[in-house]
Inverse folding.
């Protein structure tokens, strides 16, 4: 099956995806009968200007990556370069699938939210790596996808190497999930591990994490617990059918952890971990993020460094724990590819977007 | 979507499935739009005779369970009881889905192998909890399902509470899985844990496991490593696309483990575990089962008692670890329900079996 595809965003994630796609093209074709034809790509420059490449016959990804590397813009792609906006590409391309990999906006999810909405409403399936739109419009986007009978994949936006969403969706299909708890942020787990193992202060551990490029230059979202809360919220809205907003999550982080607290926890034989927790109550889902003492019998006790973990409690299958540790630029690409394969398997990627007759 | 279903086997697993189905019927209908209509059930009595209940309008599962409990045979189901054979039910029912839950035959997989083959060839989807047919005919059955464009679910046959097959199939979709290693047998892991914690001999730990109904009366398959080998083999054939037989797996078990060996391992800070291991080589997949010393950094170190674990190494998503611990009669039911939901989602359960005109 050939899938005509457009890509929004060609930063690290987008270019990582293109590289992975080149490497896996033969595997996808021969083993899974999937051929992704990339018709168009749009990237927004630092000045807000649109750069695009579009050909109804498909772009050569190798050439696209090379053009981007050599000239700094995909609009230099010979014969197909231009300056379509994201919406123009959605309307113009008639593609069946949109891959949304623009930078995350945590204020109101735009422009990803509008773009995903426009694509779904037009009958295109969407796979995204972008948390923003999920934080502000998950239920609406999900409903839009259902109403238009198209696929909507978002597992790459929730801890790519830890397949929380596919596990909830497929491995636990038919179960009611009663709780989700997890170590969902690699940076804060690395810092806590470093403080425990090396006896250093929080600030020193953070600097080391930044040197190792585990922590961002602005690490506040990680250490204040918000990245954990975002992943928890999307997971609970998706898997536990909650209908919550980020303001419904009680959030605290690791920013005030002292060596003293670490030592006291160790003296009790435990480990201090930043845990996100969603629990089903009679009529809704309670969510919180905060430090917890983890006992040696708990499967999270030995989840250290940048490893993440999640535990689901279910009615039919008991407790299921997932651990995953990979963290690199190609991870999101792998997670997006997974969503594409699963949607293709469910025959959710079909038909193709309705062409806008204005073009 | 209504799914006309027949059930082969009405022992603990079959009756457990019926109970779970009664309990989850509303959830399945309202949330997932799935209605399972059980048209017929066949059970083979201890004397080899067939007992059946069949109605083209569907059976009342509550009444079926009650009839079985009160009279010892489903053929006493008023108005629909009889003595159809398994093949007669397959041919007669025109059902879309067959649930195969007959006892496992580890010699040649029969009669499950023939029954599954007959159903698939007739255009019925099949979900099974039975290892036997998978050990002897996995590739053939898989191909038969593809050729007939129907679904074939078997995750319940491979460590139900540890969703190895759905993880390989969905969470790791698009990845190449390079190795699978796991603690796949709860009984032997329980015995090793008990030997470690209580300092008792293998034989004593086994007796305790039998008293707690963790170990079977005949525990040889568990402690000699074969149950682990069976699960490993099915996983590798399914997820790593191996094409191996049980004789290709080097198997050793825990039957000769002494307290001395346990103590020596502990003195090195490690734990002794029975590990199944499948590794991709240039041209095939190497498989073995045996005791290994597990270091404290390894995620299996703290997998104790009846908990099981599996670790996948993949090209795109790095290492993914799964832990699961539940073990009860309803587990297989939960795993089968999962397969049914996933196949329905992929629209693999459609059409219905081709009716045999002889009836």
């Amino acid at each position: 099956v050939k899938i005509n595809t457009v890509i929004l965003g060609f930063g690290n994630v987008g270019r990582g995806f293109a590289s992975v796609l080149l490497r896996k093209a033969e595997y996808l074709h021969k083993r899974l009968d999937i051929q992704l034809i990339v018709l168009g790509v749009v990237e927004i420059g630092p000045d807000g200007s649109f750069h695009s490449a579009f050909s109804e016959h498909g772009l050569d990804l190798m050439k696209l990556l090379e053009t981007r590397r050599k000239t700094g813009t995909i609009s230099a792609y010979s014969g197909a370069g231009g300056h379509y906006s994201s919406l123009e590409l959605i309307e113009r391309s008639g593609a069946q699938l949109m891959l949304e990999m623009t930078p995350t906006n945590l204020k109101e999810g735009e422009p990803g939210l509008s773009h995903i909405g426009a694509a779904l409403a037009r009958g295109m399936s969407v796979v995204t790596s972008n948390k923003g739109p999920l934080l502000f419009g998950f239920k609406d986007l999900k409903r839009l996808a259902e109403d238009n009978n198209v696929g909507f994949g978002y597992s790459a936006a929730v801890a790519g190497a830890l397949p929380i969403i596919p596990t909830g969706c497929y491995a636990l299909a038919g179960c009611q999930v009663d709780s989700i708890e997890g170590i969902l942020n690699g940076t804060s787990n690395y810092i806590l591990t470093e403080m425990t193992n090396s006896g250093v202060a929080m600030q020193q551990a953070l600097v080391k994490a930044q040197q190792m490029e585990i922590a961002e230059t602005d690490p506040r979202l990680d250490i204040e617990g918000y990245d954990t809360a975002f992943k928890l919220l999307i997971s609970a809205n998706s898997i536990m059918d909650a209908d919550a907003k980020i303001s419904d999550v009680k959030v605290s982080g690791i920013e005030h952890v002292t060596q003293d607290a670490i030592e006291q926890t160790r003296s009790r034989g435990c480990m201090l971990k930043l845990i996100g927790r969603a629990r089903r109550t009679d009529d809704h889902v309670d969510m919180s993020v905060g430090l917890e003492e983890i006992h040696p019998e708990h499967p999270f006790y030995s989840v250290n460094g940048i490893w993440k973990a999640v535990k689901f409690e279910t009615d039919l299958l008991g407790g299921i724990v997932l651990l995953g540790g990979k963290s690199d630029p190609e991870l999101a690409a792998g997670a997006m590819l997974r969503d594409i394969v699963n949607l293709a398997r469910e025959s959710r990627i079909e038909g193709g977007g309705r062409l806008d007759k204005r073009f």
Summary: Confidence is low (pLDDT under 50) at residues 352-359 of chain B. Chain B has twelve helices and 13 strands. Chain B touches chain A through 52 residues (CB under 8 Å).
